[in-house]
Design a protein that fits this description.
five-stranded mixed beta sheet, binds zinc ion, Metallo-beta-lactamase, Chain A, about 300 residues
Length: about 300
């Protein structure tokens, strides 16, 4: 691990001029993670893989400006064509630069629910105030041109990239692995030291998926959707957040608590354990409420598309 860190190259970038939007971190031969600054424009982490005859990009940020900056950084490293973009799920903070890479020639690939939900379910992800411009942007997002149900293999010459669906975070999530380098891009199936957004989540399925991912990928370098580059212990820590949340909500429900009283009963404990994590004030109370809905069977999930 020490030698890997020593080989790490950090590049600080800013499209907004105010805050660096992301940092590039080399995590394998020809493999880079783009770790965002939470206060910048980029939103969710991205990354890219350079193969023999092309490049695959994983996620495209929540704004086209840092997406253009990322394309510029790739161009400094290789003249090879951008063959693929893989969207790890449909949420706006991972897909709003798709047009930048499609214009550069990339084929966008994702699990089929990404295509079904990108232009509709993302309306609820917009920060207030809602404007006609923001809504129109979501309704014209560049959709995947190739979709799949459970998994797909992509090839950059001899370099194989495996993309596999896991339920839990939204019902549209994929994990992107590069087997020759033991690198796994998890999208928002993994959050490091950040409280997750559970708006579309099924935490029961998510805990099971995290167990499956550990079995499927073993010792790897894990890139989360939010937070810095992670390891196997970080996967366990995140799993514990979800499992403990479920257990505590279930306990309060068994004691007859519901609604805001249930949220207020659990929030201080959550804060003492996870108050230092990013997004605590954004998502912690909602996580309690949404998990309560899930356990009661009243939670609204994005509708499964007909096909
Ligand atoms: Zn995200």
């Amino acid at each position: 691990m020490a030698s890997r860190l020593a080989a790490t190259l950090l590049v600080v970038l800013s499209a907004s001029g105010a805050v660096p939007d992301f940092q590039l971190q080399k995590i394998g031969s020809g493999i880079w993670a783009a770790i965002v600054n939470d206060d910048g424009l980029a939103g969710g982490n991205a990354g890219f893989v350079i193969g023999d005859d092309g490049v695959a990009v994983i996620d495209t940020f929540q704004d086209p400006r840092p997406a253009k900056a990322l394309l510029g950084e790739i161009r400094k490293l290789t003249p090879l064509p951008i063959r693929f973009v893989i969207n790890t799920h449909y949420h706006l903070d991972h897909v709003n630069g798709n047009d930048v890479f499609a214009a550069a020639g990339a084929t966008i690939v994702a699990q089929r629910n990404v295509r079904a939900w990108m232009r509709t379910e993302n309306i609820k992800m917009l920060d207030p105030p809602m404007t006609p411009e923001k809504k129109a942007r979501v309704q014209s997002l560049t959709l995947p041109a190739v979709d799949f149900d459970s998994h797909i293999e992509l090839y950059l010459g001899s370099r194989r990239i495996n993309v596999r669906y896991y339920p839990g975070h939204t019902g549209s999530d994929s994990v992107v692995s590069v087997p020759d380098a033991h690198v796994v891009f998890c999208g928002d199936m993994l959050w490091k030291e950040h409280v997750p957004n559970l708006i579309d989540s099924s935490t029961k399925a998510w805990v099971d998926s995290l167990d499956a991912m550990q079995k499927d990928y073993g010792p790897s370098t894990w890139v989360p959707g939010h937070g810095g580059v992670a390891n196997a212990q970080d996967v366990l820590t995140f799993r514990k957040y979800l499992a403990d949340l479920r257990a505590e909500v279930r306990r309060e429900q068994a004691a007859g608590e519901s609604g805001d009283a249930l949220v207020q009963a659990l929030l201080p404990g959550l804060k003492s354990n996870y108050g230092k994590w990013g997004f605590f004030s954004d998502y912690a109370a909602a996580d309690i409420e949404q998990t309560a809905q899930e356990l009661l069977g009243t939670k609204r999930l994005p509708p499964n598309p007909e096909r």
